[in-house]
Every structure is written in C-alpha cells, then in structure tokens.
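Slide 14.
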Amino acid sequence: MLLLGIDLGSSSVKVSVVDGVTGRAISSASHPPSEMEISAPVPGWAEQDPGVWWKNFTLALGACLKKLGPKSKDIGAIGIAYQMHGLVTVDSNRKVLRPSIIWCDSRAVEIGERAFEKMGKDFCLHHLLNSPGNFTASKLAWVRENEPGLFKRIYKIMLPGDYLAMRLTDEIRTSYTGLSEGIFWDFIRNEISEEILDYYGIAPELLAEPVESFSVQGKLTPVMAAELGLPAGIPVSYRAGDQPNNALSLNVMQPGEVATTAGTSGVIYGVTDITQFDPQSRINTFLHVNHTERAPRLGVLLCINGTGILNSWLKRNTGTGLSYPEMNDLAAAVEPGSEGLTILPFGNGAERMFQNRDIEASVQGLNFNIHRQGHLYRAAQESIAYSFRFGLEIMKETGINPSVIRAGESNMFLSRVFRGILSSLTSTVITLYNTDGSIGAALGAGIGCGYYKSEEEAFNGLEITGTNEPDSKLARIYDEKYMEWLDLLEDKLYK
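Slide 15: predicted structure.
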C-alpha cells in the first residue's frame, strides 16, 4: 500500500507519497515555490485564504502524482498535518466566511488575558493547562465581538487541517488533540470545557465532531477523487497539528522524548505522562496524538514565533539570488559572535514565552565598516539558537530536561552552523532523521487505517542521517555570548 501525507504549513503545502513497506517517500512535491502570502491588514494580524491552501495543495498533489505515474492507484490512505491554532469559519453550505486567522495573529491576546483573569488563573491552569491566550477559542471570541453579523452566520469552526479534510471527504470533523490545541478541552474532566464555551458565548454546536487522531475520519468523495486524479473511497485516517505530527514523524511518542523544529517558527516539543502546567503559561500542553485515558500522553510545547522567519526575511531582503546553502556558507566564514552584531529575532507577533508580549525584532551593534552579508546571516542563526536555549530553560522548569533532541533534516537544521551552535549552546546531542511532516502524516495514515499493526512498525524505515555533539570550545564562547544577548533581551522586556 502507498500512503499519502499532506503537510499544510503557513509557508507552503507539501505532499508526499510513502511506500508503506519501507516507510520511505517515493514521490514528493511542494507548492508554491516561494512562500505563501500572509496578509496583515492591521499590524499584529496574520490571515490566509483557505482557498489558497487548497489551490496549493492541488498543485503540489498534481506534481507529486505526475512523478508517481500509474502507481497512484495504489494509494490507500491519506493523512493530514497542518499549521496549528488557526481559525476557519464556514456557513451551512460549507462556504468559507472570512480569511483564516492563523497561528501568529496577535489580535486576540487581550481577549485571552481577560478570560484568564475572569475565569480564574487557577481554574484555567488546572483544567485547561493553559491560559486561553491567543488560541483558537480566543480568536473565535474576537470574531464574535468584532464581526457579530458574520459570527451569526457561522455553521462550524475548524482548524486548517479540518478544512482540507472537509474538502476531501465532505465531512466536518476535528480531533481530540485539535480541541485541546484550540483550548476547548478540560483535562481534569476529559471533555470539552463548558466553562470556556460559556465564558466566550460559543454554542457547542459550532464545534466540529471530534474523532481520534488515528481513525477513519471520512472517505474521498467520488467528485473530489475525479478532480484530484485519485481513487474514490480512500480513507482520511489521520490528522494532527504540525508540532504533534512532527513529533510523530520523529517517533517521539513516549514520556521523556523531545522533538524540535525550526521552520517559520521554532518549537521544542516534549512528551510526558504527567498533567502539568507552567504557572506563567509560557508553555502549552495539549493531548498528544497517541493519548488515551488509560495511557496518557501529553505534548508539552514551547513555541518561538521569531525564528526561521528571520532567516527567510533576510533571504528576501538582503540575499537576492542567494540560496539558503549559499547563505549558510557565508555565515560559516564569519567568526562566532559575528564581530559584535547581535539580533533579537522576535518580529513575528506576540511571543508566548514572553507572556504574549510583542517586543519586535531589533539589530544591535551594527557597524557599516565591519559587517557584511555573512555577519547578518551568522548573527541571525546565533540569535535563533539563543532563543531556543531561552525556551529550553523554561521547559526545564517543568521537568523536561533532554540530553538528546530529535529533528528532521529540514529548514534551519540544514545549516551545519546552526546545528553546531545549538548543540554546543544547550549541551544536547542533536540527531537528524530522514523524515518531514508530510512523511509523518503519511505514516500516521497507515496507523489510522490499520495498515500497521503498531506504532513501532510504522517507524521501521526511520534512519539517522546526522548527529551533532556539543563542542566544548564553542560552548565556552557561546555561553558568554548568550549572556550578552540575554542582557539585551531583558533590557527590551523590562525597560
């Protein structure tokens, strides 16, 4: 059997077809070639058109199937991974009512903060394991407050992956982990939180029907099958947000295991079986994809908005004609510390680890007579590594203290400069694997449709492609540089 995995990101949509026997991708494609537009009609907002997601999915799928040829008839299951925390609204005709308010949009921060105070911090942290913050429930509350006419027309709300699944199957469903991701889940009662719905004035009927992450959640309709060039009746048998899915793709399924990504945003994601929360609500706890009442599995997530987007911004604005490998080569030619050039990379909206403050990005120590492109690129990668260390130290306060971090060989982890800095700065071994989100989604589909007899069987093809050990010399240098960077950050936070 072949397995189709879809990874809906905020930058692009990637599709992979995986051989179920080997667990390896035999065809992959992504679209668009450049990054998808994120609209910001008001500073701090971030919106995308779900129709554009669908268009880019169909183009990526078409390219993938073209490479695959006649074997496409052997695709037997579909899995979906998606950018988390977004809000999609549809009417009773399944028509999208407004652009999706996506994960990095900051408009609902104040609404979430008010809810945290009014509902009671103790209640929120113990029952929701989070502040309502800037998550999907708060985004919907913003729509209710600011677009009441539109709100009255909403038939169902969805997460981005739910929207893709709806288009494929004509079924409107979500997952239990998706409900927890939107801050709709009560972890003590193990059910949808009546309190959050009541406080925000959200009717329970607006929520999509929940299903298990690994389950047959609908089947490809004949009409859609004909449009896409796939056999009708293929089950959609897995869905998860991008970070739980990334952990799945790296076989991070058991307590104590940790995964990380450094795409548009950066994430540290650890699995635990203990219900826990951060009193300052800087980290988020969600149901992991393999959670059950009998064997609890919770994902503890720390998100850093301002990471890879800094690198891509530099490429667009200072690296015209340069590839990312060429930028990495220029960075590698610069000495550690970038000759005094330092960057705070937090220019992508409110940062959860700063308690939803938007401190903006800034460049310090720029000297026009010294610094060139390579200094900018190295300083960017250093600053992103510093932000990961800052985040990891927050995670350690909750008992997650990894000695090994797993990552896919993609995005910032393609840079040996970044890997070397991060490993040395955090005293961890970084292990890279031959996988990505779309492959993980495909393997998840194989688990969900019953093709694989166990989770372990699904990852037989997972291979280590590289390892970075901490370098003691770099560690000494970067420990000092990190403290200098931390001083700049604290000046920004507390001035």
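Speaker note: The CA atoms of residues 10 and 83 lie 6 Å apart.
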